[in-house]
Amino acid sequence: MAGPDVVDLGFARVDVDREARQGLPEVIYGSGKTPEQISGIVRTLLRHNDGPVLATRVDDDVATSVLAAVPDGAYDREARLLVWRPAASLGFGVVVAVAGTADLPVAREAAAVAAATGLDVTTVTDVGVAGLHRLLAEQDRLRAADTVIVVAGMEGALASAVGGLVACPVVAVPTSTGYGAGLEGVTALLAMHASCAAGITVVNIDSGFGAAMAAFRLARVARRRTP
Amino acid sequence: MAGPDVVDLGFARVDVDREARQGLPEVIYGSGKTPEQISGIVRTLLRHNDGPVLATRVDDDVATSVLAAVPDGAYDREARLLVWRPAASLGFGVVVAVAGTADLPVAREAAAVAAATGLDVTTVTDVGVAGLHRLLAEQDRLRAADTVIVVAGMEGALASAVGGLVACPVVAVPTSTGYGAGLEGVTALLAMHASCAAGITVVNIDSGFGAAMAAFRLARVARRRTP
Amino acid sequence: MAGPDVVDLGFARVDVDREARQGLPEVIYGSGKTPEQISGIVRTLLRHNDGPVLATRVDDDVATSVLAAVPDGAYDREARLLVWRPAASLGFGVVVAVAGTADLPVAREAAAVAAATGLDVTTVTDVGVAGLHRLLAEQDRLRAADTVIVVAGMEGALASAVGGLVACPVVAVPTSTGYGAGLEGVTALLAMHASCAAGITVVNIDSGFGAAMAAFRLARVARRRTP
Amino acid sequence: MAGPDVVDLGFARVDVDREARQGLPEVIYGSGKTPEQISGIVRTLLRHNDGPVLATRVDDDVATSVLAAVPDGAYDREARLLVWRPAASLGFGVVVAVAGTADLPVAREAAAVAAATGLDVTTVTDVGVAGLHRLLAEQDRLRAADTVIVVAGMEGALASAVGGLVACPVVAVPTSTGYGAGLEGVTALLAMHASCAAGITVVNIDSGFGAAMAAFRLARVARRRTP
Amino acid sequence: MAGPDVVDLGFARVDVDREARQGLPEVIYGSGKTPEQISGIVRTLLRHNDGPVLATRVDDDVATSVLAAVPDGAYDREARLLVWRPAASLGFGVVVAVAGTADLPVAREAAAVAAATGLDVTTVTDVGVAGLHRLLAEQDRLRAADTVIVVAGMEGALASAVGGLVACPVVAVPTSTGYGAGLEGVTALLAMHASCAAGITVVNIDSGFGAAMAAFRLARVARRRTP
Amino acid sequence: MAGPDVVDLGFARVDVDREARQGLPEVIYGSGKTPEQISGIVRTLLRHNDGPVLATRVDDDVATSVLAAVPDGAYDREARLLVWRPAASLGFGVVVAVAGTADLPVAREAAAVAAATGLDVTTVTDVGVAGLHRLLAEQDRLRAADTVIVVAGMEGALASAVGGLVACPVVAVPTSTGYGAGLEGVTALLAMHASCAAGITVVNIDSGFGAAMAAFRLARVARRRTP
Amino acid sequence: MAGPDVVDLGFARVDVDREARQGLPEVIYGSGKTPEQISGIVRTLLRHNDGPVLATRVDDDVATSVLAAVPDGAYDREARLLVWRPAASLGFGVVVAVAGTADLPVAREAAAVAAATGLDVTTVTDVGVAGLHRLLAEQDRLRAADTVIVVAGMEGALASAVGGLVACPVVAVPTSTGYGAGLEGVTALLAMHASCAAGITVVNIDSGFGAAMAAFRLARVARRRTP
Amino acid sequence: MAGPDVVDLGFARVDVDREARQGLPEVIYGSGKTPEQISGIVRTLLRHNDGPVLATRVDDDVATSVLAAVPDGAYDREARLLVWRPAASLGFGVVVAVAGTADLPVAREAAAVAAATGLDVTTVTDVGVAGLHRLLAEQDRLRAADTVIVVAGMEGALASAVGGLVACPVVAVPTSTGYGAGLEGVTALLAMHASCAAGITVVNIDSGFGAAMAAFRLARVARRRTP
Fold this sequence. Notes:
Domain PurE (chains A, B, C, D, E, F, G, H): 94-224
GO molecular function (chains A, B, C, D, E, F, G, H): hydrolase activity
InterPro entries (chains A, B, C, D, E, F, G, H): P2CMN_synthase_LarB (IPR039476), PurE_dom (IPR000031)
Helix content of chain A: 25-40%
CATH architecture of the largest domain in chain A: 3-Layer(aba) Sandwich
Protein name (chains A, B, C, D, E, F, G, H): PurE domain-containing protein
Strand content of chain A: 15-25%
Oligomer: homooctamer
Organism (chains A, B, C, D, E, F, G, H): Saccharothrix texasensis
């Protein structure tokens, strides 16, 4: 019941054509899947594709089981990411700018996914706008980036500040950190959209993965245009 | 039907005791009131009190009628404020920091009300966080203030940035400028509350008046404590 | 009261350093500004910069007055955009994909701003997902783009569909078209964030301008990397 | 205290007239009920009606107890459904189209309830709009349906796409899958209502049951009109 | 730039294949379109299709201009609907049940669109649940319907009551009537989804058109199944 | 630090004047309080007042401890209510009308609090509007009431229906039952306010206590007026 | 098509049985109705009932036309109310307590409707909680009431304060006065529900009419119980 | 990678310049941090600063570990606060006014943080507006304060009442106590902003810490101005 581009595993129909279409195999969203399901999809993707295979939001114990079943993978506990066949460097520099300590888990997902897909990642932490001197001290590194991923919760103001400092693309990730008026990240998401800095773009709350994929799309178009 | 502290004008019962209780006569909210109603309340307040008498949110034509009926007042068109008997200086310095041009009407209400009640007001404009160099160029003036009123719409990030730069009280006014995700000022209000800068406080959307009154309360307590 | 990078016109403090910092002079948000204010800022930007000067959200009659005062500009009525010194082509192809007729005003702002800043723009209309054959008929053009700007209101589903069809960056603009459950664009904004397509990014409701500026940032980084 | 149409069990008053009125006995909402309560209601319904008796949202251990007390029933663990006396086929074809793996539990409730009431159900999985080729590959099956139930979370775009592909009734079920901007299914619900596809209808978040009952109403009216 | 199924008029790309695909030509959403645009699309649809051609949300003066340009149409002022070539009866009975007087404009759009597409429509008014005797007096007519469209604002309770009275499909249209807590129809929309009556479905706020199209889909499937 | 009307227990300052002021001693909100705290307040209230003493939202184990410490009280497990010195009948009849089984816990709190304060309570269950015949079968009992308390979740339509059937005061309690679009009771609360039945009033979500106290206020005013 | 209790005027079906059922003829909601429609309904109600006939939300010019067509009525411009045959006093005292001047229009609707249905109404103005001395000065009048209607916008705190001062029923009306965080009355509505005062009830935003009808229900039950 | 003002601990970059900039070392937000992380930051702050070092939101067991690692600190269990080197008195009087028992945890955080930074704190409990006599009994203490911190959940009305009673600054803290319409503190936050009392300011939901820091800013400016 599945065409040549789709492998039907019963519990999922795996899109093995995506690498050809979008330059990267389908990425597995691990949350809610059993080790057996993840292992099955990973094997399928490894067999039908050539590029990196990733599973996000994988907890420690699930990761151990999957790695036992499908060898040669690596687990990044802080990023909750499993990776097989990480990509070679595309020579595209991404800086992940993180507002506060509480935003680190999301930042690590962004950094690890970006690195696994071939981007060159640097992380800059604790640069929230309530301490502008710490942000300004990082200006040179930010300006040298091909793309900046801003990870910030609470009021999300870091996106506006970075947007005004750099000329390159800025992808903002609102996080669900903070409490009360932060509304689990909704306030940061809305604030980043209402930002006074022109041309910054936004992905879903806590979606380090989404930001990394947006950066990967950028890297590909930049690369395509390089003779 | 009103005690000694209240003068009943039929259409309103004027609280003439507030000056004694809070150091300032009742302020008239002009929106929706006729020139005759405003004039009547102004006369009552002038007669029963000694301090400044203010009417906010008064449009041009209403102001002209009221000033004709109750002489010796002054009208600030940009602030939409009518003032009689402005207060002498309390020697308390307030800086009104304004994110963008669209926030100016609210900033002017804050500045004019603060000045009429005896505060020494300076206004600093176009210091939104998307142009940090403009904000940083004003650091000295901000740090010299006894209180900073931050007026900002869109994502309201200026409040966090100023909160981190100065040690004095910061009163943030979200404005309803911007469109879409700004949600008529609700996003800025929530973002200012979720701010990563400790100890900043917030007043209602577009309430330049509220911020000025908060600053006036501060000035009084600072003055009371001065030998 | 303004450093060398800022020209103080009294009613505004113009950031004349932005061209150096971000590759493009400050863009004027025309809504709520008088013809005199817009003309003053345009003259300042033309004098202190070399690149294109733009004013967005300018109505017909205001545009006529401004063009009389500052010659050599051009007005695009459908986009409500004024442009002086449009940029030469950067050789970066942007396709603006529009869901329905009601989304056209926002799409035109995106297209006109992008063109004025040097991007090569094609517009594809009436490709909403309720008529997939019309969308699929445009696949080749979409896949040839360096970046796709998706403009869609109502449920915003076009962003997901395009995100799955192309490998390049996708910038989604939710619009306030539709009624009822569309909540003036908030539903489309949220839906685009919750999208099942990985790596698409989103800008503010109705912000054709924001999407164009995001594309301009992409074009610059792609160009920088081209030998 | 109950008329002939109502059987009062103390903890509930069972509507035994519904089969006559609406063609199907009352369906038991199992969540929060004890095995004894469910068993009591099931027995009452079996005794006073002739048609199928269903209990939804029943967990594994509760199901075991109820089946021990009231024999001849069957439990579908994935759908969390208990069924006695399933209906004979009405010859009405329903396709349940499912966007992603995470939507499967809701889809299974829809499919199992529909099947138990006599509908002929086919399920089509992993047809989210970010992979249009997988959806288009199923066009023939979708077009052959008498009704399509679309189960989709996140941005819910599948409803619009299917609504444009088929001529038959489309009942959309938003699910609470996804995170952040998905707002626990509210975004999908609103998006499905704002859909650009004409004539699709929507039921409550996660209500596979509601969609199945809507399809059953359709099947009955189609059947009534068949000579 | 348009395939054989699409006629490109410059300002719109008309989908002339929809009649073949869905049994009805594309319906024109008149709001925001000029008489010339509407006339152009109508002519195109009349030429390339055989069925009824409809334009909704058309104001009085626009209608007059369009009818002058494209003869043989009819305008229903209360429904704000223009119709050419109304369909012959499909023998499918729809009752439009209306809660209160304020809901009538939406009800009339539903009734007129349904009638133009070949459904047999009866309207029942003033049957809000605060006067149950008026609703119960209409029971027989409601039960004889093949489908009931419920149009109700405020708290939308009529949908639940009708859902419990009839066995046929119920399509509920929340309206934006009422004030305060009605939240412009959002309360009714949510309430109809949370309804305790099983199997009722809901369309967008004020979308009489959407309800009629849902009924048309039902009529087609019922007809298809009739020998 | 407390006047004669207030007894300061350290962890709470008990208002022992309320019985004189409002005809009933302060009622203890048990949630979050230790058995020792509840016992202390109960003893104080028993000593300084003559009327009934109540503690709401008390769990089973806490109740056992409190009753051991302060004898002569009674615990109603279903209502989670502790009562000492229940009031004699005021001869005022209250009917608690309950939409569905899931609303019973809230209804029981309403009924038990009302009974403890001297009201004559009857409970009518399973009268949701999706089964109007069950509601209509109870008309006589409802019309004989001095006040009806309506307890309903989901869409809350029962309040409108009862409001139209009876002439006496109707107090509606929205409950947090249901899922999805019910928004934890917010939908029912809004819907009850938007109701088409004139003169019904509403209390907080799940506040059986609030409804009982509203009924008690009614009973007192009715009694006061009885010679 | 209407039973004996309903008079069908074509544009409305008038419920002439309501007086018998609820002690008061149906009240006409004037907003959006033509003078002819209002006159027609008024005549019908006058003919088939004996009690007072009311039309609310009627503007000045409409009122003039209606009074010309149906003599012997009276118009209260401030309350926007038309009344024929006002009721004799029921001897039931209602105090309308108004927070501020801006709340007066809603308060006047409440007072005028209550008076027309036979209640004895007193209005107390300018008693917002920011000036507690003005509220406390009215304690005796408030405590003498059979029912207090509290009309308050902004934060709605007056309801809590009055609820704690009096023992009689309190019906709170949130108003849409104020700006920003007041959210057009939604904040006051929610705040009144979350009130710390036990047993106060709430009606819809700006519904002076709803509060008056709630008081009328109370007066009837109090009267019924008076020998 | 950190300038002289920042100490990089790997897991955090500590801002040791804040004491110079804002008069108080950085305060540690303990939630989510391990004892080792907290101990490390505390040691750094103690070494590089002279003033008080605080860690908020620290649970019992974490506190024990931290105190074992970094001696000479003190733990306030009710406030969940760790303090080293508490400040000497600044002679600035703060009254924390608490509406109800459930608001005490937030009030204790406010009081303990304020005391540790050198403010003279008094707490006044159980003064919610539903019992105005308890509030009025505390008027003298409230009026003697240099600043009042109001801690209130539910409808948050205490802020308005206190704002009208005192002339000094009022900082309002909405709390997430209550249920239903309280919306986890959002209702109180909005209501405090919409307050009819002029010049009160608001901090984030449950942020006793934020209110204390706002008071500390006030105390510093008052002190600075004292000769």
